[in-house]
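Sequence in, structure out. Go.
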Amino acid sequence: MPPPKDVVKIAIQMVGAIPQLIELQQTKPLASVLKDVCDAWSLPNAERYALQYADGRQTYITESNRRDIKNGSILRLTTSPDQEAEQLYIGIQSKNVDVKTDSLKKLASLSQDITFAQEFISRNGLKQIYSIVEEGNDTGEMLAHTLKAFTELMEHDFVSWENLSTVFIKKIVSYVNMNAVDASIQQLSLSILENMVPTSRLLFEVVKKEVTLDRLLTHLQATNAQLQLKAMALLIALLLSATDAERRDMMDYLREKNIRQFIHKNIIHSSEPLGDEMAHYLYVLQSVSLNLCEHRMKMSMDAFSQEQRDLLQSLRQTAFESESEVPAGTFSTERRRSLCAKEFRKLGFMNNSNPAEDLRRAPPGLLALDNMVYFSRNTPNAYSRFILENSSREDKHECPFARSSIQLTLILCEILHIGEPCSETAQAFYPMFFGQDHFFEELFCICIQLVNKTWKEMRATQEDFDKVMQVVREQITRTLSLKPTSLELFKTRVNALNYSEILKLRQTERLHQEETLAVPVLELREKLKPELLELIRQQRLLHLCEGTLFRKISSRRRQDKLWYCRLSPNHKVLHYGDVEEGVQSPPIESLTEKIPVADMKMLLVGKECPHTKEKSSGKQNKDVLELAFSIVHDVEECCLNFVAPTRYEFCLWTDGLNVLLGKEMTSERTQTDLDVLLSMELKLRLLDLENISIPDDPPPIPKPPSNLNFCYDFSHAEQ
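Output:
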């Protein structure tokens, strides 16, 4: 007979005593439970004790979290949080160095628990932490424990970062700026500053002033991977908190210091594999850099701006230099205006009498003009060849340079997500971005020449302009999906993907669609579906058994903390628990938290999840909404909240959990996988029918013969 809903069977340990096996009444006050446990071991003063989990993070049990206790949990009787906080508060003030160090070490460990942290902070414990940092000159083990304890205490958000004194902040900054200091102290100091920067404008300005970009670059060049990671985290925090003007200045300075080349050589192509956290920071750095183009992208051309008009005229003068050298007095004003209009028409402007009108559309706005000018100045031969080659073509067959440039700039902005806020979880960056200064402009230079090449291959006319640009978009998108490591490799691959190759790819996809639409084939597909869906279900469960590393996301910042979740091999229990950075696949025994599959009630996704409702709404959280899911479990309907690292993981986990709940798999990945498997299976089944047309209706069954005397009688042959 199953135990009542409000009763859990648990074990309670104590050092030097035989464990107690009890049935915990969840309706019974925790103080009464502790009294009974202490009485069983003849311990006086039950109020001085508390229960905490024996494994994992060893969280204290309180009235608010007691419902999380599961059947079979192992608890430990220990000193109560208020007693522990009092002892450590006294211990960290001790004159004995060993006692002080041990107290700080224990404080750093216990501060992860919110109940203990509340007790310690209520005793003004943070003031003692400040004093140790501000007054002490030690840079060894004691300081490392102090900074770790401070970081953990501040993580609970009981105290505002703005309450920190100037002396404390400058001391933390000094550890970052010192050379002769332990790497662990520098890592903790960088992490503290990273947390500090987004909280207020004042703290941002202090950190930006005290920690120079040169100093951060020095840490980025360190061989210590964790120090490198924390330095990158602080750099990203500064960039995200800066104003547009400050961000532009910072990026210009970093460009002068060749940070991209350093990242490309020593981080992306390092012998060590790139971690998820660093991949995210590189994505943000790429996004921030590309978004510097947003201002020009959204700005329309001002016909009264002399600077903009000069840029426009420079395009004409570079292309038709010899014709423009005719002395001013040779032609009348009307004749010169007519000549200019003719040259702007050759440049591909639709409004040749007033080309500024073509650049009024925003986006791409002035960014298109900037790209055209960059192309004309940095690759003048290619620019002149493009213009002159099309000038000599017959009418309607010339590729309009200006019109193509404007549309191409818009396409590149859309593909590279310029003007969109940074995702909180994305890790997808282009390695070639870090191998080249002026990446966007150089990419444009390659792609505008691709437009001309594709135009010729398609033998296009002006009416085909949209078709050509659609093909070019496809060429760029398909090539970028291959993640080329350099612009040269991108150029080689995108040029190899010519119009005939695009047609072949499209034809293959179209034939595949057509052959799978025949009635007999559709019937065969339906017969194969159940078997293949079962194969997908098994793959999803296998993926859950292998497990996945998840990150903890808060509304304040992207967290460093990781946790791992995996399904038991018998598909009956979900195991999960916190892990350290660098742990790829922890053994199932090390994951102390458990949820029986039988206790799982439902799966929530997106906006329905409790942890997405807690976060502030806004564009920046769109990616979190797309990757969030929660498992509702137990009688009390507790939730285990997830934010998947990628859309792929989101699909596999939500499918797997739906399988465990006995529901249909609903992710888009299920349909994609099913289509791939069906396609492969159908091709194998229809291999013998190649080049044979399949009729829509089955052939008629012939009438039975009038007699069956045509059968051969073997008995006569034997005689």
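Check: The mean pLDDT is 87. The radius of gyration is 34 Å.
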